[in-house]
Amino acid sequence: MTKQASKYFRTFLLSLVVYCNFIISCSTTKDDTKSDQVFRYNEHKNISSLDPAFAKDNSDIWATNQLFNGLVQMDSTLSINPAIASSWIISEDGKTYTFNLREDVYFHPHKLFGKSNTRTVNANDFVYSFNRLKSPQLASPGSWVLKNVQSYKAVDKSQFQIKLKEPFPAFLGILTMKYCSVVPKEITSHYGAEFRSNPIGTGPYKFKRWEENIKLIFRKNNRYFELNSKGERLPYLEAISITFLADKQSEFLQFVQGNIDFISGLDASYKDEILSSDGELNFNYISTVKMLRTPYLNTEYLGFYMDSNKTEYQNQLIRQALNYGFDREKMITYLRNGIGIPGNGGFIPKGLPGFQDSIGYTYQPKKAKHLLDLYKMKTGNEVPEITLSTTANYLSFCEFIQRELQIIGLKIIIEVLPPSSLKSAKSNGKLDLFRASWVADYPDAQNYLSLFYSKNFAPNGPNYTHFKNLQFDSWYQQTLKETNNVNRIKLYKKMDALVLEKAPVVVLFYDEVIRFTLKNVKGLGINPVNLLEVKNIRKN
């Protein structure tokens, strides 16, 4: 951004101050406390539910993470740590998980609990919560997490046991998802569907008030069970305040003015204002803003539909030529200000065991042209042409690839579709080449490799490319039974290398979590699944 453009941008931002401050002030009520005791952030769309059984979107997950706990939780390194379960034992065959529960975990206060207004969590609460999660009547989008569960029971009040149908080493990671949170029967049975706006959990914060599309307030849970390393009770702050400004430029303005404490992600409307071309904070923000970034478990890619009846998409030479034919590093530099990791490795993203940075494709235009010429010679198709389907948000990336591949003689036609249309067409095999991304459902490389298992063909599974390979399937089945982590990761690496060789996908880049915070915010942290943890935050 030029100095003149930057000056204009800041003038424009300032012109919106009055309006946005008016919106923020209109949502301020007696529930607020001093700003140095409140963590403030914004959501671009309304939160649909505060019931953890429906915590599918990131906005819902962030909110419910402050209100609810499960058996286990994940730290910033993706390690599984105790939560309501203080410890656990896994049987030698990898099928039985026995959890020992803490006895000092209390539900948030509510009159339905009787005279004491609360009670401790016990193993029967998890039986009820799991029954509720898988109930067809509830129709939770998270019911799939129990698909491999054969049975579960309360051994006694403080011990909960789960038996799997088959060994599944990634199961503990699945249990960290908010779907698996404990909820009290007394409250959910009373409110029914309205539990979405009357949540009672065990988390570090408790529900206070919700004006949908305007403001959401949580207050500190003074009986929260977790302590810091010094024995001090979490959380530190008194409240969380969430606003709902849909416009990302307005959100950035509020951040610059100090009215919200952090923003997550990088939007085109302000990326050149806050970041230099090499991904560093611009000078104007160094004194007031901190930037955090880490690999995000998100692989951005192009997918070929392998069952296409058109020879261009079926031919490995074309697919490999496309992989070699554009410069991923230049793409990240110019289109994302250096945020993101060029996809020169496998489909497994950086940040997960199994990631390999040297098995993918680098920019080799001469090799790409050679492969394309070889295709023309073998097929007699002198003017190969492919159609790439995308959404408007990723049009610039697709146009970049289009220009690069045009140089070597491969014509790419770009088709822009609404997100819902692309999603439906991709699932039903209506697109020959499509842009997509895969964000981890759970932190294990198996989740990424499941996109290439032949029994997972879309629309009933995540294999949108309809890739099928007998060797891959055999290794995949082995990973489901392999309880040794070292051996399982070796298999992951072989599977990923095989996928890259056959090239049903073009890995574009591995995303990064990027967060901007005000300098007075301490302890926010960052993690590869972009989970928001407020319990460790202080402000000074």
How would you sum up this structure, described in words?
This protein is 31% helix and 21% strand. The protein has 3 domains: 7-51 and 192-263 and 516-539, Periplasmic binding protein-like II (D-Maltodextrin-Binding Protein, domain 2); 72-188, Dipeptide-binding Protein, domain 1; 296-513, Roll (Dipeptide-binding Protein, domain 3). It is an alpha+beta fold. It is globular. The strands form 6 sheets. Strands 11, 12, 13, 16 and 17 form a 5-stranded antiparallel β-sheet that branches. It has 17 helices and 19 strands. It has helices at 3-15, 17-26, 58-67, 123-134, 171-175, 185-191, 248-256, 271-274, 311-314, 316-324, 328-336, 365-379, 395-408, 419-427, 445-449, 470-481, 485-502; strands at residues 38-42, 72-74, 80-82, 85-90, 96-101, 149-156, 159-164, 205-211, 215-220, 239-243, 262-264, 289-304, 341-342, 385-390, 411-416, 433-439, 505-518, 521-522, 538-539. Mean pLDDT is 92; it is low at 16-20 and 22-29. α16 (470-481) runs antiparallel to α17.
